[in-house]
Amino acid sequence: MFRLLKFALVMGLLGAGVYYGMTVKLGERTFFQHVRAIWDTKETQELRRGTKQKVGGLVDEATDQVVKGVAKNAPGKVLLRGEGNEVDPGQVPSQPPQENLSPQDRKALRNIIGHGHLKPNE
C-alpha cells in the first residue's frame, strides 16, 4: 500500500513539474524553452562534440581490452556464430583482426553506429 502511494505521489510531482515546465512563463520563455535555447548555443555544441570525442576514445580503449580478454580466455573449441558445428582452433585466428583506422575513420564509424545511417559529408 505504501509503495503504491509513494509511486502515485512521485508520478503526480513529476506530472506537475512537466506541466509547469511547459506552460508557466519564466520571463519570455517557459522552463523547457530556456533549456532548449541553452542546448542550441555554440558553447553547448562544442561541449557535446568534445565530450563525444573524449568518450569515443575511452570506448575504443575499453572495447580493445574486452576483445583481448575474450581472445585470451577463449576455450579450445570455438563455435562460430550461426553455426552449430565445432571448429578446430587452428582454423580460427586466435587474435581478432588488427585494423589500423585513422581518427577520421573511427569518427565516421561511430557516427554510422550511433545514428543508424550513413552521413555522406562526415
What does this structure look like?
Helices cover 61% and strands 7% of the residues. It has 122 residues and is mainly α. It folds into two domains: 1-40; 42-68 and 100-122, no CATH class. Strands 1-2 form a two-stranded antiparallel ribbon. It has a two-stranded antiparallel ribbon with strand order 3-4. A hairpin with a 2-residue loop joins strand 1 and strand 2 (29-30). Mean pLDDT is 77; it is low at 77-81.
Layout of strands and helices, then pairs:
Elements: H1 2-23, E1 25-26, E2 29-30, H2 31-39, H3 42-72, E3 78-79, E4 86-87, H4 103-115
Antiparallel strand pairs: 1-2, 3-4
Index terms:
122 residues; mainly alpha; 2 domains; two-stranded antiparallel sheet; two-stranded antiparallel ribbon; 4 helices; 7% strand
Number of strands: 4
What count of structural domains? 2
Approximate shape:
flat
> Radius of gyration in whole Å, from Cα?
24 Å
Strand order of the largest sheet: 1-2
Compute the number of helices: 4
Beta-strand residue fraction: 5-15%
What structural class should be given to the helix and strand makeup? mainly alpha
Please estimate the helix content.
Answer: 55-70%
List low-pLDDT spans. Answer: 77-81
- Please describe the biggest sheet, giving its number of strands, its sense, and whether it closes into a barrel: 2 strands, antiparallel
| Oligomerization | single chain
Element pattern in H and E: HEEHHEEH
In whole angstroms, the N-to-C terminal distance is 54 Å
Mean pLDDT: 77
